[in-house]
Amino acid sequence: MSKNQSDDMPTGAFNEGRRRFLAGSAAVGAVGMAGAAGVAGVGALTRSQPAQAASNGNGLSVHVDPGELDTYYGFWSSGQSGEVRVMGVPSMRELARIPVFNRCSATGWGQTNESLAVLGDSAQFQNGDLHHVHMSYTDGKYDGRYLYVHDKLNTRVARIRLDIMRCDKMVTVPNAHAIHGLRVQKAPKTGYVFANGENIVPLPNDGRHLDEPEHYWSVFTGIDGESMEIKWQVWVDGNLDNCNADYSGRFAASTCYNAERGVTLADKMRFERDWVVVFDIHAIERAVESGDYITIEGSDVPVVDGRGPDTPFTRYIPVPKNPHGINATPDGKYLIANGKLSPTCTVIDTHKLPDLFDNKIELRDTVVAEPELGLGPLHTTYDGRGNAYTTLFIDSQVVKWNVEDAIRHYNGESVNYIRQKLDVHYQPGHLNATLAETAEADGQWLVVLSKFSKDRFLPVGPLHPENDQLIDISGDEMKLVHDGPAFAEPHDCIMCRPDQLNPSPIYSRDDPYWEQARKWAEEDGVDLDTASTVIRNGNKVRVYLTAVAPQYSMNKFTVKQGDEVTVIVTNLDRIEDLSHGFAIINYGVSMEVNPQQTSSITFTADKPGVYWYFCTWFCHALHMEMAGRMLVEPA
Ligand code: K7E
Ligand code: RUQ
Ligand code: CUA
Ligand code: CA
């Protein structure tokens, strides 16, 4: 039953790449290899292996033996940790972390000039709340270019380049108050990034209205995924929770749990029904092109008015009270809204949406099923075989149900649409199956992100880990095969095949990421690729260093107390995995410098004396010796 993982590799290219890497690292030389092997050995001894069932009876193995590769990439959000985590599935091993709205001690994210340029006007914020992560699409399939994420805490949307797995763009969204739901246009390509403003506030929110909820609103935002420019916003009634896009490219839809526009818990639960608001992207574009919009003081973003029952831009489809997730089926036919306070999901037929906007049918005519599933439905995913899987937060279960059977039941046939209920541990939020957000849903693995782990792991004090559970859905029955503890707090994840990505093994010297450093070098008349010198301009000092294991190009450099010092380090090593770092003792300076990368950091040399700088990544047997001195002359 247990299948060799390498048999599952979609293409030989991936394995070949790995062999190339192994061959390449041999070139490090005997001394280098000894160092690297030493580090790897220590890591292997201290890391405990997760207990895994060898095979679960559905034909899939959860074993990924040492030296074997996972068959899927997972991209996990981390909620209030503010980062993205890259996981291997099915091993559930964490492969990498991508800092975005947080600060990162290892990479220098939030401190390097390159990251500060990305953080832009929001660099003042040290934190964020990253709920959703979605990949760019072409024709309904992942295209491996970018990930898009949002910050519920400081109202931002950011992009991650998947070649280097680093955030390269971040924008603060005006007029919105917390971005929650985020999805991207699936067809013809991304295209737009859609961002939901969750909380209602006065527009503009400048203090002229305070405790006057009748002036509170929220907006739906369309961002260009290429330029990351905010293209337009739709002023909506109610609030916006989660969102999704259809597979035609014309519609997006968001759940609203606060049709009441209430400001207290009791207010927000007053109505029996809230709604799903559907957006006609083409109608919004036409209005913006013809200048048929307003702007709201404090920003130039075009805003169209989508409030009311008969705008060209919106339709508000009533659904049972306080819905949460909304998920498009991989065949493009349906958008399914999850009931949360109602034990139901609402199945909306996307092919009826054009008629709805043409006023040929009524709002509820778009609903083709409303199956009763259990208590607290939050999110739904799919296996590509017609089945849906919905988390039941209150019941602590995943319920598997059949969409077409639910529709037949809604039409009066006596048919049981529930296939199975599986206990999960405990209180699940999002769940996602492999490729389920795309037209290529393949029904292999399902990950359910449980919000409480309670007794599932050794106790670690009052703050418990979350429990990311792996379920095999390849057979008729769901089988729980792995418990994965996670630090605060994954909300959502997506999974794709390794052949859908093409990460760079090393940087390319012409990468735009360090454009600023390139300009500085030009101003200073030095060649960034080889520069090893100190350039002074008044009290501004630029220090150019290169790094080749196990040495920096200068053993020391001298600055004056009070100088504004910019250290620019270029890693000239071309060997995959041979990262260096640069850190200065007692100056709080530390950053990554990966093969062929340039990184820079600026600080004030406010303390006189001798300060050693050193390499932070174990790169060589003489890594400890990879150091030098910054001499700060007293003022
Ligand atoms: Cu359900 Cu922010 Cu997607 Cu959490 S949200 S669970
Ligand atoms: S009252 S236009 Cu709140 Cu001053 Cu409003
Ligand atoms: Cu370079 Cu350690
Ligand atoms: Ca409500």
From TrEMBL:
Residues 539-635 are annotated as: COX2-like. It is an enzyme of class 1 (oxidoreductase). Cu cation Z3 binds at H132, H430. Its main location: periplasm. Pathway: Nitrogen metabolism; nitrate reduction (denitrification); dinitrogen from nitrate: step 4/4. Predicted to be exported by the Tat system. The position of the signal peptide cleavage has not been experimentally proven. The chain crosses the membrane at residues 21-45. Its EC number is 1.7.2.4. Its cofactor is Cu cation; Ca(2+). Cu cation A1 binds at H580, C615, C619, M626. Nitrous-oxide reductase is part of a bacterial respiratory system which is activated under anaerobic conditions in the presence of nitrate or nitrous oxide. This is Nitrous-oxide reductase.
